[in-house]
Design goal:
alpha/beta, nine-stranded mixed β-sheet, single chain, two-stranded antiparallel ribbon
Length: about 350
């Protein structure tokens, strides 16, 4: 079981318009990986002592940008975590190993080509288990809600598949499942495919990748159906997103231009899902499950979303018209409000 190692800042308060306050606390946990550490951020209403408050929720980031950049940007419209906490849900963010403020495998200090893709599904599941064990120590609940974005949705579902007795509700957001073999960006014929043996992972992708600020936006921009992207997406949010991504890695500014590291295990997992190789079974997701699919997403596929809700015994689908992969970071009129309202309703309704 994980145990508390370091208390980063004891009481960090954010003023709220309704005169309540949000309390933020950052923790380092001893993880399951040889005494290295995992970073967790807790955000909750300081006065939220109600005995009937909802189960806490753990948010799981995707393939590249860690938890703060994904879910807790310090600008209006940039913190899903804050909005969930304001709704009375104790909210937790986790950096998986290899990301953000958590420990990185030693291989990430070596040239990427010297290792195979790092932080695969089994490692992510171990880290989520450590975090949930810790959250349960802070909560009267014996179960925790999980929300995963993109590869984080895959990892969350893999965890829920293995440890269903610990998951109260599950949100799978713009994620892959492995229903079909067609995915031009991630599957056969993509950079992840072995050109000499199509259908096998390219052996040259390495243990991790370096990401520039500019690399964060082309796919997002291409999925926004208007020329002026600032109408759809607040430039303060996109700037904060890029800044948080670069700030997540202490080595980012050792490069010119600055570049942050992200493990390639997420890409290897996604390649398998993109070519129809499932790593978990939706039929085993016995908890209430909300599947969110954005119509303009470049990553997930509607076939996968439909397969999950057809196979899982207690699942439903929310499809966001014209929504992008980053709908929780877009402006409210372009899908964000629909997304946030549905998540809050799902997590707070008995």
């Amino acid at each position: 079981m994980s145990r508390l190692l370091v208390f980063l800042f004891t009481l960090g308060f954010i003023s709220m318009s309704n005169a309540n306050t949000l309390q933020k606390q950052d923790f380092y946990l001893e993880s399951c990986i040889n005494n290295q550490h995992l970073f967790i951020r807790e955000i909750k209403l300081a006065a939220n002592k109600h005995i009937n408050k909802p189960a806490p929720v753990l948010l799981i980031h995707g393939a590249r940008v860690p938890s703060i950049g994904s879910f807790d940007l310090p600008v209006k419209g940039g913190s899903l975590a804050q909005e969930l906490a304001e709704a009375g849900i104790d909210t937790y963010l986790l950096d998986l190993r290899g990301y953000g403020k958590s420990s990185r495998p030693i291989e990430m200090s070596l040239p990427a080509e010297q290792s195979a893709p790092l932080v695969r599904t089994d490692s992510a599941v171990e880290d989520i288990a450590c975090a949930i064990n810790f959250i349960k120590q802070l909560s009267p609940w014996s179960k925790v809600n999980l929300l995963g974005w993109a590869t984080g949705g895959h990892w969350s579902a893999a965890y829920a598949n293995k440890y269903p007795e610990t998951v109260n509700k599950l949100v799978i957001y713009n994620s892959l499942y492995g229903t079909t073999q067609n995915h031009p960006m991630l599957g056969k014929g993509s950079f992840l495919d072995d050109p000499a043996h199509s259908g096998q992972l390219n052996p040259h992708i390495g243990g991790y990748q370096l990401n520039t600020r500019e690399s964060l936006f082309p796919a997002w921009d291409n999925s926004i159906p208007m020329q002026d992207k600032n109408i759809w997406r607040d430039p303060l949010v996109s700037q904060a997103y890029a800044q948080a991504a670069l700030a997540s890695d202490p080595q980012s500014y050792d490069h010119t231009p600055p570049q942050f590291r992200s493990p390639n295990g997420a890409m290897a997992d996604s390649f398998e899902l993109a070519i129809g190789k499932r790593q978990w079974q939706a039929k085993n997701l016995t908890m209430p499950t909300l599947v969110i699919f954005s119509q303009n997403d470049f990553w997930s596929r509607k076939e996968d979303a439909l397969a999950i809700i057809n196979e899982a015994p207690n699942a439903k689908l929310v499809e966001i018209a014209n929504g992008t992969h980053f709908v929780h970071l877009d402006r409210n009129p372009y899908g964000r409000k629909i997304f946030v309202d549905n998540v809050i309703t799902f997590l707070t309704t008995n």
